[in-house]
Structures are given as C-alpha cells and as structure tokens.
Amino acid sequence: MLKKILYFINAITIMSFALFLPTPKVSAMSNYDVLYEGIDVSHWQGYINYAEVKASGIEIVYIKSSQGSNIVDPYFRTNYDNAKANGLNIGFYHYVVARSEAEAIREAEYFSSVISGTSPNCKLAMDFENFGNLNKEEINAISRAFLTKVQELTGKSMIIYSDAYNARNTFDKELASSYPLWIAEYGVSSPTENINWESWVRFSIYEFR
C-alpha cells in the first residue's frame, strides 16, 4: 500500500505535470506541504526512455489512454508497460469530446474498456477542455455523467484536468465538492487565477488500494 500523499493547498494545482520530452520540465507551483514530481505523456512525445525519466527524479506518469469513443492513443500501451517496468507510479487520462450526457457515458465506457487489465495506482483523470458551443450547464452535466460512469465501472476515484480560467469560471462547485483538480499552468512562478474552492483544498492523487 502506498504511503505517499500529495498535499494540495489553496486549490491551485495537483502538481506541475510537464511533458518530459522535448519540452523542459515546468517548475512546480508553491503552497505545498509535499510535492512529487510528475509528467503527462501521449503520442506527441513519441518513444520515451523511462529509465531516464526515473533517473531524473520523476515519480509519477499520467498517460493518455484514449479520446472520444473510438480512439486509443497509439503510445498508450508502450507508455504504460515501460513506465510500470521502471517502477513509476501511473495514472491515466481520457480526452473528452462529448456533446451530450449520452455521449459522455459512451466515452466513459470506452475509457474503462481501454484501461481494463492495467493496474494504475493514481486516480484517473478527465481531460475536458474543448467545449465548442456548449454552455456552462451542459459542460457540467457532461462532466458529471462521465466522471460518475467511470467511477462506477472502474471502482477508481477521478480528478478533473483544467486550465485555471475554466476551473474558476466553468466547472461548478458541486463538482468541486466531489472531485480534486489538476490545473495546467505553464511558465509561471505563481498562479494567475484566484481559485478559492475550500472543498478542493487537500487530497491525494494516490489510490489506497
């Protein structure tokens, strides 16, 4: 059972996940009790040498597994197998493109099927950032449908990936009361948005299972 906990203060960000190659690692935000270095990866990085990742001090890898209801990231399995072989902690994320609650449920089912047979030890993440013409109410309903269905199917807890603007202005506090937040904010030494959702103050990205 993992004992490490990533503590998160003032609802700013889960950690400073950065692309390992070719993008330089982004400096972590402040306001942490404990910080564990992590990266997020997808096919955009191509082949990754996870022995080098491990040697660099990275402890956690979030891997893109899928998108929509019919796309598997072409490096998903390679990233998973190689990260696991090198003793890294692993989480998966799915890129949501749904435009209705019914589509969100189909995507949740697809995500769950893609990652079945794996053993991530970090919470799963919803990456929903391209909203098209959806209004705020629709975005939150789609998010809630996806998050709820994935948890039902996998038994794993979920987190929400967002930029700072949408964390503050789009995702509602009902979601905030149930799901931790991973905010992407690059190239800054302090957050640019004042996000003050008390219910998102402290959590762990690890699953204690």
Account of the 3D structure:
With about 210 residues, the chain is α/β, with parallel strands linked by helices. Helix content is about 30%, strand content about 15%. Strands 1, 2, 3, 4, 5, 6 and 7 form a seven-stranded mixed beta sheet that branches. It starts with about 35 loop residues before the first strand and ends in a 25-residue tail after the last strand.
Average pLDDT across residues? Answer: 78
Number of strands: 7
Distance between the termini: 6 Å
Q: How does the helix and strand content classify structurally?
A: alpha/beta
Question: Which series of helices and strands comes N to C?
Answer: EHEEHEHEHEHHE
The number of helical runs is: 6
Tags for this entry?
209 residues; alpha/beta; disordered N terminus; 7 strands; 6 helices; disordered C terminus
